[in-house]
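Researcher: Go.
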Amino acid sequence: MKRKPDLMVVLMAVFGISVVVTLMLPMAANDTVAAPASGLQAGVIINQ
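Model: Structure:
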């Protein structure tokens, strides 16, 4: 039994984790996007 893990396995694991983190970051950031404070800032025109 080898003591050191194979370099290719370690590289593939790091790559896989980085891909998962990259895909998960935009989902986590959706709630922190600044919302417009008023309809005027959002560009909503209300005709009365």
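Model: The mean pLDDT is 75.
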